[in-house]
């Protein structure tokens, strides 16, 4: 289980780098796969031949993405029976109410706004990785 | 915007009902009034006509009766002067006059009898064939006593003849010899039955009754169209009777003892103590007017129906568009701005409709413009929320990492600079937060409900205390301060105001905060007061503008949108916010939540 990758969907390279560092600080050993737009994210999840889908343990999803919007990515994840229960944490700049509502409506597992303060951000990443990667027991159907 | 229209219960007297009621009422009153006036006027006219006709009949009848009696009198007068009668009357055999009297009686029909009396009042000769007519005494009769006294011709009171048993009026004249001495009395019995028969012939109209009344001793019917009433007392009511007995001429309407309304006319007969009375039942006399009255009533009813129908048509023409306007206005109030009534009529109603349409059009345009502006604002704040923070995270994050990973290689000043960069980016983050807060306040839909401001203030104060447990602030919150407004927005406003008070009393030794309300000019003003550091009113020109601060960030933290947010919230409720303060003497922030006419502090 610990070697299953986390998919980070993030188009901003600065945020990508900061997220990487935050992961490193929280001693997450899972591989961090990065998709830089919505299309790439879907390819990663549903396979363009590179990886089998069941590998991904957690998706960290930004919303404002090139090509395909984060919410649309989430909708497709949830509408596919294979990824219906895949944990998806929305990790975004926005605290707009409509994003929050739409995210939860589409079945996001968590919604975390990235704070400006890096220490807070690092703490948030640490907590969510502890929770989703260590504490949380995934449903047996998708774990197989 | 779901603006609720004013509550629209069905009015008890709708426009349509009012107009119809007024029109029908006016038509009814006018029609009934005209009909009544017509009936009254024409019945008066007819009554006057009928009465004057009756009076004319009475006068004519009086003349006829006068001639009838005068003819009989002249005939009897002439006979009394005839030499053969005088000779017979003065002889020892006055019965010798009888054949002449019989001839006279036969030739003069108004007389029922002609009798010659001696001076003792005993009949001595008669024109009647009946021998019993001779030797009868009339000494007790008024006419005999009168003529014995005055020796002048005299019309006696009507009597029933002792000889013929017929009702008669006796006319007695003296029979005088050549020396001028009265030697006998000749009496003609004027037949009132014949007079009655003649009256019946004079006026064959069965409705009209005629009588001739002898006015003496309470009145006696001498002639009557009903022969059974001969010699009876006239049955005419005391008022009319007293006038008749006084010899007056006139008309009268009265109710007879048997309950009938009678129209009465009476006229005295010249030269005789008699009067002619004519009368007829009022309802029969007025029968034509009753018929005409019904015709008028029918005409009025038709007019009322027509006027009512016309009124209803007119009121529908007025009320229909008014009701359409009302419904359209309700729909506009409910938010449907696409409604148009499109009246085509050229009158004021049409103008009203076109003005309404123009108003709805302009409202719709404004609403569209507002929606567009709101959408742009929303897009803008969405972009701000998503895009503006990311660079700050990078600036903060990497300067943090620089210190964390390479702090040892940096000198004090470099670390200080990096710390400033981090502080500035955090501050920028707060400002963006503030901008988003203000933008959202403009977007959120305003609700209006009863809000317990005291309860909110209490909760906010508890939260402030919980966040700073070491502070001891005396908080006084007035009980039961209520307002109508949006609970969430009002909570935000109170949180800002109480938060400010909490913040600016920090350096004070005995900090105190109060919340309450005050009634002025019928409006409620709410206040948050503190005894904190206060500020100089000279520097408050833009106190409620965004990012305006009276204190440095080092002194008191904050992103400078608190009061701007309060002002937005208060203004969205239609109210105002203002402040009273002095340096070192605390500050009081006032706000209202409804449009008022107060104009202090602005």
Strands, helices and their partners?
The complex is a heterodimer of chains A (about 140) and B (about 600).
Chain A: E1 6-9, H1 13-25, E2 32-35, H2 38-46, E3 58-61, H3 70-79, E4 88-92, H4 97-105, E5 110-113, H5 118-135, H6 140-143
Parallel strand pairs in A: 1-2, 1-3, 3-4, 4-5
Chain B: H1 15-81, H2 83-90, H3 98-107, E1 111-117, E2 123-126, H4 142-150, E3 154-155, E4 159-160, E5 167-176, E6 182-191, H5 192-202, E7 209-214, E8 220-224, H6 238-245, E9 250-255, E10 261-268, E11 274-281, H7 282-285, H8 287-333, H9 348-406, H10 412-443, E12 449-452, H11 453-467, E13 474-477, E14 482-485, H12 487-504, E15 512-520, E16 523-530, H13 562-572, E17 577-581, E18 587-592
Parallel strand pairs in B: 13-15
Antiparallel strand pairs in B: 1-2, 1-6, 3-5, 4-5, 5-6, 7-8, 7-11, 9-10, 10-11, 12-14, 15-16, 16-18, 17-18
Describe this structure in words.
The complex is a heterodimer of chains A (144) and B (602). With 144 residues, chain A is an alpha/beta fold. Chain A has a single domain, classed as Response regulator (Rossmann fold, 3-Layer(aba) Sandwich), CATH 3.40.50.2300. A 5-stranded parallel beta sheet of chain A has the order 2-1-3-4-5, sandwiched between helices. The longest helix of chain A is centred in the last third of the chain and has 18 residues, at 118-135. The N and C termini of chain A lie close together (11 Å). Chain A has helices at 13-25, 38-46, 70-79, 97-105, 118-135, 140-143, and strands spanning 6-9, 32-35, 58-61, 88-92, 110-113. Chain A is globular and about 35 Å long. In chain A, helix 1 packs across helix 5 (118-135) and helix 2 packs parallel to helix 3 (70-79). In chain A, strand 1 (6-9), helix 1 and strand 2 form a beta-alpha-beta unit. Chain B is an alpha+beta fold and 602 residues long. Chain B folds into 3 domains: 47-285, PAS domain (Beta-Lactamase, 2-Layer Sandwich); 338-443; 446-592, Histidine kinase-like ATPase, C-terminal domain (Heat Shock Protein 90). Helices cover 50% and strands 18% of the residues of chain B. Chain B is built from 13 helices and 18 strands. Chain B has helices spanning 15-81, 83-90, 98-107, 142-150, 192-202, 238-245, 282-285, 287-333, 348-406, 412-443, 453-467, 487-504, 562-572, and strands spanning 111-117, 123-126, 154-155, 159-160, 167-176, 182-191, 209-214, 220-224, 250-255, 261-268, 274-281, 449-452, 474-477, 482-485, 512-520, 523-530, 577-581, 587-592. In chain B, the strands form 4 sheets. In chain B, strands 1, 2, 3, 4, 5 and 6 form a 6-stranded antiparallel beta sheet that branches. A 5-stranded antiparallel beta sheet of chain B has the order 8-7-11-10-9. In chain B, helix 9 packs antiparallel against helix 10 and helix 12 (487-504) packs antiparallel against helix 13 (562-572). The interface between A and B is medium-sized, with 20 and 22 residues.
